[in-house]
Amino acid sequence: MSKATIEDVARVAGVSISTVSRVLNNNYPVKEETRKKVEDAIVTLEFTPNSLARGLIRNKTFTVGVITPSITNLFFPVVVGGIQEYFQGEGYTILLSDTGGAPEQELKHCQNFKERRVDGVISIDPRTANIKSGFYEKLSGEIQTVLINGYSDGVACNFVINDQATGARQALQYLVDLGHKSIVFVRGDDSYSYDLKEEVFYRVLRENNLPAGPGSIVRIGSGNSVQTMEMSIAAVKERLEAGTRPTAVFACNDWMAIGALYAAQALGLALPEDLSVIGYDNILVSQLSRPRLTTVDQNMHRLGRVSAELLLGLMQRRVEPFQRIHLDTKLVVRESAAPYGT
Fold first, then answer.
1. Statement to judge: residues 173 and 287 lie in one domain
2. Is the pLDDT of residue 54 over 70?
3. pTM of the complete model beyond 0.90
4. In total, how many domains does the chain have?
5. Which domain holds residue 174?
6. Is 100 part of any domain?
7. Is residue 199 within 8 Å of 262, Cβ to Cβ?
8. N or C: less crowded end of the chain, CB within 10 Å?
């Protein structure tokens, strides 16, 4: 049998082609009786794949939009993998958009998802400006949305949040307990995650009566993983060569930490004897570096899966809105940090 056409659907339903088009696109009002005839004809003729036909009748597309600030930083693909694995088992298709960390691109991709009539949206590490502006609260009123990490104080949205503050505290206190008194904090451009970790950095220093001088913060720009590592190499190398050399580095992600390792090696420093380094995320590269990187594990795959489970629950009205789910982090001790003076 030849594949059914829109003309066949119109003939079986006893309506015009334009009426079928209106039902398919849902862009003009159609009488309920007429809509039912068209939908029945679509299913009978298998005009679209069965799943899409069922979705049309149920006003669902069985698609979920996922927004990420990067596909090159290995943290985000693992989170997406957890989302994809869960939804694939539930019969959903993932539409993935990479914003490059740009707030305006985040808004653009969300609008695109709305136009594609996705059933739900997951935004990973959304930009703080878009949260504080009320954009995501408005979006959540139009389509079920889950935010992974990001600013959440007083925001009426659904969040799945890693306890990044506790993770940062574990890493910094570990360095302090190893006897380090001169610690440098490496971070990227504006990000709620980086801002939060920096607050913890200063708090831990104050609690342990340690100084925080003008060279305590090393800030690099934004970019893909390779660019982040290269910027970290340059910035940390410059800091190590300037004034009193620190004995330890805590970096906001593993690529920055790897950059710090390379910077120290370029200056002929022994690791971890001359410089201890701790990263954050526990991506694969942290196990491949030399020395192997001590880092904070965020259990990225679980982060994605729990977010997907929450979104499906919201879409199926099994879960009340405005959820906040907190997941634990864990310090993974390897070889890149050692007691001061060893």
1. yes
2. no
3. no
4. 3
5. 164-297
6. yes
7. no
8. N
